[in-house]
Amino acid sequence: MSTLIHALFNLNQVLPQLVAQYGNLVYIGMFIVIFVETGLVVFPFLPGDSLLFLSGSIAAMTTHPLNPLILIVSLSIAAIVGDTVNFEIGSRFGQYLTESPRWRRFIKPKNIAEAQKFFEKHGSVAIFLGRFMPLIRTFIPFTAGISKMAYHKFILYNMLGGISWVVIAVLSGYFFGNIPVVQVHFELIMVSIIVISLLPAVIISLRKKKTTALTAEVEEQDNQD
Predict the structure, then answer these.
(1) Of 21, 15, 20, 57, nearest in space to 33 by CA
(2) DSSP letter at 135?
(3) What is the pLDDT of residue 1?
(4) Whose CA, among 46, 48, 123, 192, lies 20 to 30 Å from 26?
(5) What's the rounded Cα separation, in Å, for the pair 205 and 209?
(6) Cα(56)–Cα(68) distance, rounded to whole angstroms?
(7) Backbone angles phi, psi at 65, to 5 degrees
């Protein structure tokens, strides 16, 4: 277990070695990691952003066999199917899992509360925005399932979010991952990607606050009149 954890959090060293040793079989391993992170609510800590970015940078190297198109297609499918499974788990077993003392050790009430707050604030678009936010990404579809969100709405935002997340992360790695300064400061770059990923949610939140403030101001003026 400790070896697996070390590998997951030292991807910039481990993944190139795995690609060199196992070739195309690595696609299967990456598919599983992305599926598990997005599909199983007890694994929010898996490094999906890092994996996508790094796989894109490796695909840009002529010495490695990874194909960016195969990465985008296969990992987009993994992300979409993962969120769909997570949604179904939330819909069918969410109440039991969040109330069971056994599962509450793995499904932290704090994380569920944050996801619910985010979902309530942004509505259906939270499914899309949540893709770009670590931890929230895993709990949003689960929360949507608990909330009995209409499946046709969920699957639309699920597909848009899953494809966008994978395309942006993989192509960012493909075009920028092999720049020397990026390689030297890989961990810092990943933190930067996470911060940038949070910007859409922040912008939408600020716009809503501004709209709410303006509405309240108009209503106050009307009352005074």
Answers:
(1) 15
(2) T
(3) 44
(4) 192
(5) 6
(6) 6
(7) -85, 0
Position 162 pLDDT exceeds 90:
yes
- CA-CA distance, 73 to 126, in Å (whole number)? 23
Q: Give residue limits of the domains in the chain.
A: 2-199
Query: How far apart are alpha carbons 191 and 198 in whole angstroms?
Result: 11
Chain centre distance of CA 161: 9
The predicted-structure confidence for 76-120, as pLDDT tens digits, reads as follows 999 999 999 999 998 888 777 777 777 776 677 776 777 777 777
Amino acid at 131: R
DSSP assignment of 174-221 equals HHHTTSHHHHHTHHHHHHHHHHHHHHHHHHHHHHHHHHHHHHHHHHHH
Block residue for tokens 């949540």: 130
> Angle at CA 191, nearest 5°, toward 25 and 21?
20
Q: Compute the CA torsion angle 165, 171, 174, 175 (nearest 10 deg).
A: -130
Range among 4-13, 171-180, 207-216 with highest mean pLDDT value: 171-180
